[in-house]
Amino acid sequence: MKDQTISAELPDWTREAVRRFWDPGQKLIRALRRYQACRARGGLAARLASKYWALNHLFWSTICQSEIHLNTRIGGGLRLTHPTGIIIHPDAQIGVNCMIFHQVTLAGPVVLGGHVDVGAGAKLIGPLSVGDHAVIGANAVVTRDVPPGATVAGIPARVISGPGGTDAP
Predict the structure, then answer these.
(1) Nearest-angstrom CA–CA distance, 56 and 34
(2) Cα–Cα distances in Å, from 102 out to 31, 54, 68, 99, 119?
(3) Which of 20, 28, 148, 163 is deepest in the core (most CB within 10 A)?
(4) Using the 8-state DSSP alphabet, how is residue 149 labeled?
């Protein structure tokens, strides 16, 4: 069973902290957050700063070969452990303390709840929502809603443990 001590409601901002010179995932998220903060602040200085952060975002998006729109709604504490090849639709919403591995695609209006882990290569094709504390297995293709606390895997994805599943070991 997944560790539910990580909150699905309160963001853990330390998960996004840049700790080393080469933390591309954290730097990509930082650029996105600072861009959004500048746009929200308004004014001439903020507009100029937002241009800088948009260029910074473009740089880290190129390095990571990822596509995360600047206006995507992302809760605090997002971890991009291996940020290569992540594609997130502008209408997607990501809850707090989520973790997204490499080669993940959130296509369309996908809503991730809090503390959702999305395994490498998973494809979530919306519209759909994923409940809090859910786990999406590697290379899963999710086309339907996922209940809170469930683990889904396969093509098409099916619940393999948790609510509505088999609780396989």
Answers:
(1) 10
(2) 19, 22, 13, 10, 8
(3) 28
(4) T
